[in-house]
């Protein structure tokens, strides 16, 4: 016979058992660490083949990445408070129109590494309803030029766009006609060979542009005054030429590393350039005088209307006006120190000339000091702000005392792996 105390004990055990069963069942339907009150929910790597049907309508951030979702049907998501949605690394190829009708507050959408090159017309219609998007990641979807244009329609407030690892070949103004609020664009690792005139100029808020790992050969008549960071590394660029229109350029960081530059880039007259990456090019392959002559002739040909005096034109004329603090010239072909270029950079604090073929540091006396005798030391060969200077892995066999005396602020001078004395 079970007394009152025993009945109460059994009742408590039954309630606890039911609670445990309920909890276990609930865990099969909800993601790890999920409860009814939280605003964040992660279903990442849960082997899902579709969007979960039971989701808290109060959710603001939803992670469905790294699953096997192929389709999002209408009606799809009823999450009126949702602000960020991560669908990256799925197998998504079909989004029916109306699937995003009830996520009107969505600001960030990540659909990287999917199959959105399929059903582009229908998918773009579905994304067209997301008119509050500020950040969109479409990287690694196999998109061509036309597909990218369709996906960017009705994106008037979009600020950040990632198109890395697609199949873009030719950029044109129409592709960004509906996304004039863009602040950053990443198109690294595509097949871009052509950028039509007027493609980026209308994007007045654009500050960061990444075009690394493409097939660009010439950058002529560069007029992007608004850009602060421009990455053109790992292309096949032979010439970089900017317009001399007298307007201020906001460019602060320019990366032209791993290209085929034979000549120093033609920099705008008025600029805010702080960091210049020119490593792993072909600079110094030509003798200094030959390089100057050929570069001046080429730039005159490219912009004949801006250059009228062939005698006075100097491709370094704008360098002395740059507030440049860092320049990387490593892994080029310099056999002598590029005095004409770097000696005019009075704000320069970091200079990397490692992995070249420099044997001596001398000045071109015929151009700048002719008739003054061997002891003439031009005053321009001074680096008042230089703190870090690397000449590692060259062929240097001596440094003149005069040169060292003109490094008043030097803190680190790297001379490792040079010619033995």
Automatic annotation (TrEMBL):
<dbReference type="Pfam" id="PF13855">
    <property type="entry name" value="LRR_8"/>
</dbReference>
<dbReference type="Pfam" id="PF13516">
    <property type="entry name" value="LRR_6"/>
</dbReference>
<keyword id="KW-0433">Leucine-rich repeat</keyword>
<dbReference type="InterPro" id="IPR050333">
    <property type="entry name" value="SLRP"/>
</dbReference>
<keyword id="KW-0677">Repeat</keyword>
<dbReference type="InterPro" id="IPR003591">
    <property type="entry name" value="Leu-rich_rpt_typical-subtyp"/>
</dbReference>
<protein>
    <submittedName>
        <fullName>Uncharacterized protein</fullName>
    </submittedName>
</protein>
<feature type="signal peptide">
    <location>
        <begin position="1"/>
        <end position="22"/>
    </location>
</feature>
<dbReference type="InterPro" id="IPR001611">
    <property type="entry name" value="Leu-rich_rpt"/>
</dbReference>
<keyword id="KW-0732">Signal</keyword>
<dbReference type="InterPro" id="IPR032675">
    <property type="entry name" value="LRR_dom_sf"/>
</dbReference>
């Amino acid at each position: 016979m079970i007394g009152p105390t025993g009945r109460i004990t059994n009742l408590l055990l039954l309630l606890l058992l039911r609670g445990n069963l309920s909890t276990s069942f609930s865990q099969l339907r909800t993601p790890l660490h999920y409860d009814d009150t939280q605003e964040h929910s992660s279903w990442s790597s849960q082997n899902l083949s579709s969007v979960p049907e039971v989701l808290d309508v109060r959710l603001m951030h939803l992670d469905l990445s790294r699953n096997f979702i192929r389709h999002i049907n209408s009606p799809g998501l009823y999450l009126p408070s949702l602000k960020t949605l991560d669908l990256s690394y799925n197998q998504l190829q079909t989004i029916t129109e109306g699937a995003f009708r009830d996520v009107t507050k969505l600001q960030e959408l990540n659909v990287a590494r999917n199959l959105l090159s399929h059903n582009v017309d229908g998918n773009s219609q579905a994304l067209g309803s997301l008119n509050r998007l500020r950040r969109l990641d479409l990287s690694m979807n196999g998109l061509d030029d036309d597909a990218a244009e369709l996906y960017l329609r009705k994106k008037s407030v979009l600020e950040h766009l990632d198109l890395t690892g697609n199949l873009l070949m030719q950029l044109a103004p129409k592709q960004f006609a509906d996304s004039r609020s863009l602040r950053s664009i990443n198109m690294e690792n595509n097949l871009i060979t052509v950028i039509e005139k007027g493609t980026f100029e209308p994007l007045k808020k654009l500050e960061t542009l990444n075009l690394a790992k493409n097939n660009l050969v010439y950058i002529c008549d560069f007029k992007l005054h608004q850009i602060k960071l421009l990455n053109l590394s790992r292309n096949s660029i032979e010439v970089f030429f900017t317009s001399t229109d007298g307007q201020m350029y906001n460019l602060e960081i320019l990366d032209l590393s791993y290209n085929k530059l034979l000549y120093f880039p033609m920099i705008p007259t008025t600029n805010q350039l702080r960091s210049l990456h020119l490593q792993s090019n072909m600079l110094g392959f030509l003798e200094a005088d030959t390089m100057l002559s050929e570069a001046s002739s080429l730039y005159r040909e490219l912009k004949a209307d801006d250059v009228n005096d062939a005698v006075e034109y100097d491709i370094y004329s704008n360098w002395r006006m740059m507030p440049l603090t860092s320049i990387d010239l490593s892994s080029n072909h310099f056999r002598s120190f590029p005095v004409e270029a770097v000696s005019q950079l009075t704000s320069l604090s970091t200079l990397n000339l490692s992995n070249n073929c420099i044997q001596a540091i001398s000045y071109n006396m015929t151009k700048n000091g002719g008739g003054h005798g061997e002891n003439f030391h031009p005053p321009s060969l001074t680096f008042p702000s230089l703190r870090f200077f690397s000449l590692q892995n060259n062929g240097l066999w001596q440094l003149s005392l005069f040169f060292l005396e003109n490094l008043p602020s030097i803190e680190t001078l790297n001379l490792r792996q040079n010619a033995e004395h």
